Amino acid sequence: MADIGIDLGTGTTVVCHPRDGVVYDEPSLLVEWPARRGRELILGNDAAALDGRTPPGARTGRPVRGGAVTDLSLVRTYLHELLRRTSRNRWRVRRPHAVLSCPVDATPLERRALLEAAEEAGLGHADLLPAPLAGALGCGLDLADARVQAVADVGAGTAEIAVFCRGTVLTRRSCRHAGDEMTAAVRTHLREHHGLHLSEAAADALKVRASAAREPLAAEGRDVATGRPRVVTVEVAEIEAALAPVVRRAVGALADFLDDVPVAGIPDLLAGGVVLAGGSAPAPHLRDELEAALGVPVKVPDRPRTCVAEGLALAGGRPELRARPA
Question: Are residues 151 and 290 in the same domain?
Answer without folding.
Answer: yes
